Amino acid sequence: MRHLLGRRDFYAGLFVIFVGLGAFFLGRTYTTGTSIDMGSGFFPMVLGVALVVIGFLISVTSAEPERESLGELQSDVPDLRGGGCILLGVLSFIVLGQYGGLIPAAFVCVLISALGDRSSTLKGSLILAFCVTAVGVGLFSYLLQSSLPMLRWGE
What we know:
Elements: H1 2-27, H2 42-61, H3 81-99, H4 102-114, H5 122-143
Helix pairs in contact: 1-2, 3-4, 4-5
């Protein structure tokens, strides 16, 4: 079973590398600009490089020795809690972002998504949601000066 998991991780890493290379080379066809005055190709190129690095790390770590926690992965019944919570988190971000602004949308999205992990606690998920929301507000409101409303009522 470990051999199959290792190969699956290796191929997933290669896939992420190819997607990153595609984003990088596609981004090169647009103007890049500078980090102060970004062009339309700047973000795809940076994202492409990040994906290549992440894909490389996924592929390299697929050769790690077997961990004891992999025994949980051998169950025949899929664990739908994590995927369901992530999907609910994204849907809540869409709805709350439209009607409530960034602060409630980010907080609820991270809280619901974090609760998808069976090892997370409510206290830990609340702390994570608060920290991610604070970083998001600082990044989007103050650093990037985004026009995204932080709080609002209704549409």
